[in-house]
Amino acid sequence: MIRIGRPNSDDAPAWYGYFFDLAPGDDLLEALENSKQYTLELISTIPAEKEDFAYAEGKWTIKQAFIHLADEERYYAYKAFCYSRQTNVHLEIPMGENYAKDFNVSKRSFTNITDDYLAVRNATITLFKGMSNEMLDFKNFPVTPTYTARSLGWFTVGHNLHHCKLIKEKYLGQ
What we know:
Blueprint: H1 16-22, H2 28-44, H3 62-84, H4 110-129, H5 133-137, H6 149-171
């Protein structure tokens, strides 16, 4: 198994830098595994009465925030998959007015949402385990901004940790 080092900052939009900085370490597979464990530990501390809590009007509930994490990871893993296979794909980032705010949350248990997160993260880890350095760093598409599978993987870790931090601070008061 290869060690997947840090991304080149030129291989992603400038705003990714914030998320890269949140992601510790120098091996993506280890960072994905560690952030998964951190997230599962955080989930285990959330009392049932807080699952549907939103810290302000118009903000997501804790359940919606974790659905968002799984959804975004699916998106970025698919984009990394396409780049690693040298398939040029333009995908709209799932946000804004077109992005469903409810997430069918009323029909989903927190256990179901946690299982979903875990399945997506394990699939992401498996995806990156199968990539060579050439696959991780392919960027020969005439698109701006430039991305690589490596930069998308590190963004995934930072994005996950960003939302865990928000949940701890704004939802759980820690």
